Input
Amino acid sequence: MKQEMININANLLAEPTFSNFEKDGETVEVANFTLVKKYGKGKEYINCAAYGEKTEIAKAFEKGDLIHIFGYFKKREKEGKTYKNFVVKSYNKIEKEGRKTRRNKYGFLFGQSMYYRFWLWQ
Output
């Protein structure tokens, strides 16, 4: 079954946790973390797992960071419950740029009203 690959940008809910397991005689490291995506008044929580060498990137993540993930959702059932987890193929932290002050063609900050401009000239 082919998985639908998707991109998601969301904020890190808490710092990642790290663990490992044995597979075919080798130790595989796992980074688990949860992202929260806000939609209007609602929120969606996305449980993510990155495996192997990809765990190194998550070690620099902090709570609240904006993260871009690429991968697919994987569902599994355990004891009558269905769990949905996002398997990360690639991901990175989106760095915030310094907020720039934008001015219009008259030299005033965007959002200032014409009345405010008139008042300044008096």
Summary: Confidence is low (pLDDT under 50) at residues 108-122. Strands lie at 6-12, 17-23, 26-39, 42-51, 66-78, 81-93. The longest helix spans residues 114-121. The helical segments are 55-58, 114-121.
